[in-house]
């Protein structure tokens, strides 16, 4: 075997190894760029989000995700254990960790920095605006929420317990509310109705003809947080 054929064999081996670990190397032999695990993981999540939003969780496979990225299925599995693991990653590490009360608290927006507590109404306005900028993720969430009705669905338990989890999370923050409400513990029906209304508004927003999601929310806000009780608590 010549030195040239030996080098060729070595190059083929390295190329195959890179493919089997998720195409970690990209570019030519003279200029290879190694993507770190975080970058590759984000690419996989972004591709999965787009595919699931279009076809539903049950309508895609890891092979579809791999093909979209020019990877092997084994390469995708290097970053996510299985299809259910990918789904969990999308919801728990992407959708549910963006547009949170903590993000609002750090935003410096009106109603976010009151010493007496944040404005819940201002936060919900912030959230609806935020969601209006991430249509694909909202569509994904709506698809998953419907599919989670099915028995043995990977995220069924997570979706069923989500209202409680959201309430528990919101309860960690200080909110400025009318004293006549009787304390934060009495706010649960308000929070529930607000989030359920948002879910419905988002579904309508995804349909044709489109609506202005923020303007639509303001109409529901008047019913959930009526005047004059809430007039001094909107910012």
UniProtKB/TrEMBL annotation:
Regions recorded as binding DNA: 61-80
SUPFAM superfamilies per record: Homeodomain-like
Q: Where is this region: Disordered?
A: 1-40
Q: Which Pfam families has this protein been placed in?
A: TetR_N
Gene3D superfamilies assigned: Tetracycline Repressor, domain 2
According to the entry, every stretch annotated as the HTH tetR-type domain falls at 38-98
User: What name has this protein been given in UniProt?
Assistant: HTH tetR-type domain-containing protein
């Amino acid at each position: 075997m010549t030195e040239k054929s030996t080098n060729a064999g070595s190059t083929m081996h390295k190329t195959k190894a890179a493919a089997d670990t998720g195409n970690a190397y990209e570019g030519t032999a003279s200029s290879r760029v190694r993507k770190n695990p975080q970058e590759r993981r984000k690419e996989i999540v972004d591709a999965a989000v787009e595919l699931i939003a279009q076809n539903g969780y049950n309508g895609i496979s890891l092979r579809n995700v791999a093909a979209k990225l020019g990877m092997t299925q084994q390469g995708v599995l290097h970053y996510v254990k299985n299809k259910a693991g990918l789904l969990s990653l999308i919801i728990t590490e992407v959708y549910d960790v963006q547009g949170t009360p903590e993000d609002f608290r750090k935003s410096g927006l009106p109603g976010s920095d009151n010493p007496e507590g944040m404005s819940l109404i201002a936060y919900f306005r912030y959230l609806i605006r935020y969601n209006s900028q991430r249509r694909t993720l909202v569509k994904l969430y709506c698809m998953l929420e419907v599919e989670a009705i099915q028995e043995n669905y990977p995220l069924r338990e997570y979706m069923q317990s989500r209202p409680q989890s959201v309430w528990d999370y919101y309860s960690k923050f200080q909110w400025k509310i009318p004293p006549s409400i009787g304390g934060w513990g009495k706010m649960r029906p308000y929070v529930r109705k607000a989030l359920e209304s948002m879910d419905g508004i988002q579904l309508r927003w995804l349909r044709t003809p489109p609506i202005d999601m923020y303007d639509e929310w303001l109409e529901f806000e008047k019913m959930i947080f009526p005047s004059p009780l809430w007039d001094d608590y909107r910012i």
